[in-house]
Amino acid sequence: MKIIYQGQIGAVAGLTSEERDVSSDTTVAELIAEIAKGKPAEVARFLVDSEGNVSKSLLVVVDDDHVLDYSVRVGDARELLLMPPMAGG
Questions:
Q1: Burial zone of 72 (CB within 10 Å; 0-12 exposed, 13-18 middle, 19+ buried)
Q2: DSSP per residue over 3-50, as a string?
Q3: pLDDT for position 89
């Protein structure tokens, strides 16, 4: 699966995307928690809260569909996009 890091996540992680082997039985929440565990704290804070739950401010898109229920399984999805909240004027 291609994991795409947008905005500050990509800037802080130092990469805009990576490939990961992901089981179709993995939930979106499990995948994001797994990604967070493998990243520095500066990146993980964009992905999960202090309890390890998906950050409420994170925009999650799986194969062009905005995800609101993180308990859904990734199935045969090919792409996960993670975007932090945007600010600006």
A1: middle
A2: EEE-HHHHHHHT-SEEE----TT-BHHHHHHHHHHTS-HHHHHHHB-T
A3: 45
**45-73 pLDDT tens trace:** 999 999 999 999 999 999 999 999 999 99
In the chain, how many domains are there? 1
Domain that holds residue 55: 2-83
How much is the pTM?
A: 0.92
CATH number at residue 6: 3.10.20.30
Count CB atoms within 10 A of the CB of residue 27: 15
Question: Three-class SS of residue 79?
Answer: strand
